[in-house]
Amino acid sequence: MATALLIGIFIAFIGLGVPDSLFGTAWPAIYAGFGVPVSWANFVTVPVSACTVFSSLMSARLVKKFGTGVVTAASTVLTALALLGFSLSGSFAFLCVCALPLGLGAGAIDTALNNYVATHYKASHMNFLHCFYGVGVSLSPFLMSLALSDNADWHRGYFIVFFVQAGIAALTLITLPLWYKVKSEKAEEEKKFSSAGLKQVVKTPALRRMWMVFFAACAAEYTCGSWGSTFLVESRGLSVDSAALAVTFYYAGLALGRFVSGLVSGRVKSEKLVWTGQFVLLAAVLCALVPNAAVAQVALFFAGFGIGPVFPNLIHLTPANFGEENSQAAMSTQMAASYVGIMLMPSVFGLLADAFGAKWFPVYVLALALVMIFFHFSVSRALKRAKTLDSGEKKV
Q1: What digits encode the pLDDT tens for the residues 131-170?
Q2: Is the Cβ–Cβ distance between 227 and 131 less than 8 Å?
Q3: What DSSP character marks residue 186?
Q4: Largest CA distance in the chain
């Protein structure tokens, strides 16, 4: 039963990824079609992220009241309706309205499923879970690139992706009985994992530093996905549909990085996988500084490959780092920090691109990568020090 449920969770995570890469891929065609400045992407992405932060912080309460299965199904349905709204939009203002349900749906499902898998399954399952997210974020820009190559019709791209998301939403509704069956088997575990509150966990210094790791990691990941296409069009001379296809390869690299991480997670510790991914990202971004379109496209792929293992492995380490009894609350704060990074940093780059041009994209992502690595080093030292102290107390 748990295996069947895990398959359902994997498919739901495809649905989580489907909307995330779509807007950044379509934005060059959207702002040209509506005749708005390039930085106006922020009027859509910021409400999405703000609503996602809110729903991720509310997720612990929602899961406790309704259960993970119901939260998952309702959130997926909400994102499908938002995508339908995007596809029917005839004005930029309506896009901004549709951003609200898109963000509300994303935050709750992300936090709930991440914590469920972190506390009930292995590290390999967590990596494969986010590999399926990579499938979703790779699929939607590919479908959008096909639509853009046909008369640059981004509305059609959103409409096609809506049908994909609607099918996933239907599946989450069909699989709801599985959640109730598994819940009865693990009722005591669920009670344990939900015991700590937000006020308790935010007092942990290492967790507060970990917020910056999640903030910078997700800021880098989403800046690449949101602005990679614009960078390739404006700074490297690619056509809109070719740039959209290149972003598809970025997300394919993201999925591949998580797939490989899942394969080796039984032999390589999650912490080492995080460090490896961070330094691959760093090398890729340095290569993107080379003023050549082909090099930039390859660098974007390896940026995805490097950043891919970082988030799922950090997520999987949450119960081990902060205690299983604190995991749901700690997860909520980490996800909120992630979405603050997603909300702010791609938007800040949008303003910079509007003022100075998209050519600064690699430098900006490089700065985010360095922030992530610095705070990860700080957190690792703090956690090792805390474990050494705990070990010494037990010996005494």
Answers
A1: 787 788 778 878 887 888 766 688 888 998 899 899 999 9
A2: no
A3: S
A4: 73
Nearest to 22 by CA among 71, 83, 80: 83
Q: In three state form, how does the secondary structure of 268-307 look? A: CCHHHHHHHHHHHHHHHHHHHCCCCHHHHHHHHHHHHHHH
> Would residue 46 be called left, alpha or beta, if left means φ above 0 and alpha means ψ between -120 and 50 degrees?
alpha
Mean pLDDT of 32-55: 85
Token pair 């404006």 in the structure block, residue? 234
Q: For residue 376, what are its two tokens?
A: 């990860």
Whole-angstrom distance, CA of residue 42 vs CA of residue 344:
9
Residues 6+ apart with CB under 8 A from 387: none
Measure the CA–CA gap between 364 and 361, rounded to whole angstroms: 5
pLDDT at 49: 79
* Token pair listed for 182: 């598994």
Tokens of 297: 């496209």
Which tokens is 60 given?
A: 């612990």
pLDDT tens for each residue of 284-324: 999 999 888 899 999 999 999 999 899 889 988 888 777 76
Residue 118 near residue 318 (C-beta atoms within 8 A): yes
Confirm if 71 and 358 have CB atoms less than 8 A apart.
Answer: no
Of 141, 142, 117, 139, the C-alpha closest to 130 is: 117
